[in-house]
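Database export, one record per block. Field names are fixed; values are copied verbatim from the stored entry.
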Amino acid sequence: MKYNKYIILAAIGFTFYACDTEEFLNPLPDSAVVADAFFKNDASLLAGIMGIYDAIQGVNDNTTSSLINSNRGVQFEYLFTEHRSDNTKSATLEGSKADFHRYLVDPNNVQSEDYYQSMYEVIFRANNVLNYIDVANASNKAKYSAEAKFLRAYAYFNLVRLFGDVPLVTEVVGAEDNEKLFTRVPVAQIYQLIESDFKEAISNLDNTYNSRASKAAAQGLLAKVYLTQDNRNYAGAAQLCQDIISSGKYGLQANFSDVFYKELNNEIIFAIQYIAGNTQESQGFSAEFTSTFRQGKDDGLNIVNANLIADFVKYGGKRTSVSYVTFGTSNEVAKFLPEGSNITTTPPTYGLNARNAGNDWIILRYADVLLMHAEAILAGGAETTSSAAIDSYMKVRVRAGFNPVTDRPAVLSKSDLLVERRVELAFENQRFYDLVRFGVADAVLSAHAASLGYGSYNPRKLLLPIPSREINLSKGILTQNPGY
């Protein structure tokens, strides 16, 4: 992480717990991570919390190309969210990464397995911190516990949305405890833990950080939880979003480009940080989003679909040129260009080392909160005339260049809000979840797949398969999702 991780580690001589990315361990029963790591004082416990962020950050595949014992954290997340929506695709049909946009992912897919393992790495590290929470100084105990639980809730929220029922592990367990490690628990029960963890974070954290857990981040993510569950809590989500809005802490950047290239600005509520040029703290996804002038190892990922471009033409406004760039026939993501990039030159340049980029991974920002506020007020209906909902919606639209008077609708529809979320948050790993949450995923994705000749789509593919390796290690305890 870019903040004071190195200072912390140097100060305490951090040798007792390998939580840095070069020693990233898969959270499997044969892994040391399920064992009890030792924290002896407040400083070492704080270092353990930093290790949870390292697990989210993951390992740049430019550092090591092997997927064994080198989890990528969130660095593959766009495959499960953008590629499985109607937003983007792989430039070619080769390799396992190209399976996502064609709905061909199988239980042996290495990227899906990696993400599953990465999220459990986050959970197990959080549980280990909580196991030693009593060694914290009295003044820090509540906030350390809240931070660890925030990160555990974040990981579980990702898992249930992508895999459905998953094992619920809330304590340090031994490698021999297969029942706890591999018994799938209903999503509703996991959401109970997610809610409880986020509520504790809201009660005990402040808004000091936007690169670590905070009260506002917990409020925003809990609002999204309320909007996602089968039993929706629209009133609760609306209040949480209103609390963030009323705090006065956050706002929209005047220039849309600054959201992504002036990092940790006041629009960012929670982001995972990377350091450019540092092999252990950088990321590789920025390079993989290039294709025509390829900087990554693949031929190009997150290539923009034509139907998204059509929405940008109609609704994108000033966001369009910041969001994607066209080279010949290739439409490529431009939100996360590596530091030092200049795409106006011929040929374009992509900084000193595009494969060791430092662009942050944005998890939650203020524009998302404003649009969730409108969504919560809409409360599952087809439309609303609420001025509060339209106000929040229009704040995002006006920043994109639309007129606050002539472009203001008298009625805000569900379809208007969905397309606004699409062009505002494109390539930020929201579209797939939005389609599911708005109840239109099957209709939109089946039509999208048919238009591109993908005959492999069916509604069961909205959930990813449980990785075969996990099932094999469970010795029959862990079951597979239907359709795989």
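Remark 1: Residues 141-163 form the longest helix (23 residues).
Remark 2: The longest strand covers residues 268-272.
End of record.
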